Amino acid sequence: MRLSFQYTWILCLGLAYAAPLVPRDGASYCFGNVKGNASKISCPASAGGSCLLVESAQTTIVQNFTLGKTKTTGFVAVDDTNKLVVVSIQGTAIRSNPIDIVTDIDAIRVNTDLCGNTTANDGCEIHQGFWNAMNDVQDIVKSTIAGALATHPNYTVISTGHSLGGAVAALLGATLRNNGTNVDIYTYGQPKLGTVDVSNFIQNQAPSKGSNYRVTHFNDIVPQLPPHSIDDWDHYYPEFFINLDTGAPKATDIIRVDATLFSTAGNEGKTTGDGIIADVIAGISAHRQYFGNISRCDPSAPDS
Ligand SMILES: *[C@@H]1O[C@H](CO)[C@@H](O)[C@H](O)[C@H]1NC(C)=O
Ligand SMILES: *[C@@H]1O[C@H](CO)[C@@H](O)[C@H](O)[C@H]1NC(C)=O
Ligand SMILES: *[C@@H]1O[C@H](CO)[C@@H](O)[C@H](O)[C@H]1NC(C)=O
Ligand SMILES: *[C@@H]1O[C@H](CO)[C@@H](O)[C@H](O)[C@H]1NC(C)=O
Ligand SMILES: *[C@@H]1O[C@H](CO)[C@@H](O)[C@H](O)[C@H]1NC(C)=O
Ligand SMILES: *[C@@H]1O[C@H](CO)[C@@H](O)[C@H](O)[C@H]1NC(C)=O
């Protein structure tokens, strides 16, 4: 399933610290791939090898974007080595894109049409900030992917992101599936998207319309937000839970959790028991490391 490989697409995208949980965001990761004119994806040596798998592949960024009121940032790339069309969405970038903070905390839920008519429970309500961010980029992503697939009909489409970028990537993946394109969704440290209909819908799109890989790391606080106990925020499954605090995870450290809506068998079970503030403090550093550090790739990038 290549969880660690798909992760490198995020490392090569941009920084992804979680605002407002982390007071300082570090270097913007390989910033040139997003804002610059780079075509083949490249990362500086300071990446520490995290991006080597992507850098060694034959890749072309076919479209980059920073769009809408949410200034949602990302790219669509074609990887000829691995036969992929990749949508990668940047996570919260406090300095380069401070509006991300507004997007993150815009956590009222709006009724959406994502789920079609499968709205038995709550009308397919989604976090307004994530939904707006998805809508700001869906047209360009759809048209770019359609163009890429016209040239490479057999390539697999993946949608990926970390943190806020993971939430938007999941909603984009679900939207593209509704639009007739099969998409594998890979998210890392993704917060909850909405309520029961949303989770059921995305969960049930798999496997026929693509697979879902929602990766969580140890006590990362972000996938625990917004809290399930408040107003029934839910997750789709399976969850791929990295049950290792620090260091490089081995295959045996990754536990697949299958559930419906809520399970404490994975990340949701890793709480301090001392309340949300304690969980936030304890769980920030895990948010910044998945298969390696999420940032600090390029100290010379504009965000540092
Ligand atoms: C991209 O290329 C254009 C045209 O060469 C140039 O004006 C612009 O400054 C470049 N942008 C960046 C971020 O390097
Ligand atoms: C990436 O974005 C920059 C700045 O908007 C633009 O000049 C460049 O053409 C874009 N590259 C691609 C491949 O979209
Ligand atoms: C929901 O929509 C699908 C596809 O449009 C349709 O096949 C199905 O009958 C609908 N179900 C209900 C309960 O309306
Ligand atoms: C796509 O895959 C099918 C089945 O494997 C094959 O017949 C076809 O030639 C492939 N098309 C391209 C453009 O590679
Ligand atoms: C996909 O979206 C495009 C652009 O919005 C639209 O023209 C097309 O009809 C959609 N296709 C499907 C199958 O929903
Ligand atoms: C991750 O970054 C921290 C500093 O923020 C550093 O101490 C640690 O060694 C890094 N880990 C890896 C695997 O690069």
UniProtKB/TrEMBL annotation:
InterPro entries: AB_hydrolase_fold (IPR029058), AB_hydrolase_lip/est (IPR051299), Fungal_lipase-type (IPR002921). It comes from the Eukaryota. One of its GO terms (molecular function) is hydrolase activity. Keywords: Hydrolase, Signal. The keyword Signal applies. Residues 86-228 form the Fungal lipase-type domain. One of its GO terms (biological process) is lipid metabolic process. SUPFAM superfamilies: alpha/beta-Hydrolases. This is Lipase. It comes from Lachnellula suecica.
